[in-house]
User: Fold Glucokinase from Carboxydothermus islandicus.
Amino acid sequence: MGNYVVGIDLGGTKIYTALANLSGEIVAEEIEPTTKDETKLLHQLGRMVKGVIAKSAVPKEKVLGIGIGAPGTVDYRTGTLITAPNLPWQNYPLKINLQALLRLPVEVDNDANLAALGEYRYGAGRGHRDLVYVTVSTGIGAGIIIDGQLYRGSSGSAGELGHTIVEPGGPRCNCGRRGCLEVMASGTAIGERARQLVAEGFGQEILKLAQGNIEAINAKTVGEAFLAGDPEAKGILNEAAFYLGIGLANVVNLLNPSLIVLGGGVINIGEPFLELIREELAEKALPQPYKDLTVKKAVLGSKTGVMGAIALALERFS
Ligand SMILES: [Zn+2]
Assistant:
C-alpha cells in the first residue's frame, strides 16, 4: 500500500475533506457545514481528517501531510490566516494549531491559488504550463501558474485581480478603494445592479423570475433571464463582461498565459455569458498575446478547491 495525503477545502459555508493517493485519486471524503465557533472549528477539522482516514482504513503512518485552502488573506510561509471574512478566525495560526492537534505536517494557502493548482494538475489546465484561474462569484479572485509553478508574489498576495481598478472613481469596493473589478463585475455587483434596475421600475422579467421578490434577485436570476432572452438582463451582463474583458485583457497583456480558466457561480450562467467575455477580451487584448490564448470554463466544479489542496499536499510532502 502506497502513501496518501489529505486535502481540505475550508469554505465559509462548508468544509470538504478528502484523502487521496499519490496520483491524486480520492479514496475517502467528507463534507460538513462550517462551524461558526472559533475554537470548535479547529476540532471540526481534526475530526474530519481522522474521519476520512478511518473511513479509508489507511494506517495513519501512511498519511504524509495535509493541504488546506482557505478563503481570505493567507500567509503561506507561516500558514496563518490573516483575514478571512467568512470564517470566525483572524490572525489565526492554522498550520501550527492543526499540526499540534493531529501530529501531521500541514500547509495552508489561499483558496484561489489552490483552485488554480487544482485545475492545472487535474482539470482544464492539463497540458498548459502558463495559466491564470479566475473565479467570478461573490467576489473575484485569481491564481497564477507560471511555468508550471504557482506564483504567490513576494508576500503571498499575488492574484488579487478583483482589486485591480477598472473604473477610476467608480463605486466604493469592500477594500475601501473605488472602481475595483470586484465592485463592477462580481456576482454581488450583478445582483446589486439588477435590484437597482427593478427599484427604478424596470427589469420586470428579472423580477418575475424572483417570484416578485426584489430581495431575492441575484446574479443567478439575472443569468436565467439572460438565457431566456431578456434584453435588460443582457444589458447587465454585457456591462459585467465589459469590465471582466478589461481585467482579463490586462492579465493577458501582462503575463501572456496560454490559458485562462474561468470558475465560480457567475461563470456557471454558461457558454453564452462566456462568449460575451471572450468578445470583450478579443477586442481589448493585444493581438500577439491573444492569438494562442484559450479561455475555458473550470471543469472540477465543487471539487476544484479540494483537488488544489491535495495538489499542494502532494507538492509539499511527497
Ligand atoms: Zn477593491
Notes: The chain has two domains: 4-117+303-317, 127-298. The radius of gyration is 20 Å.
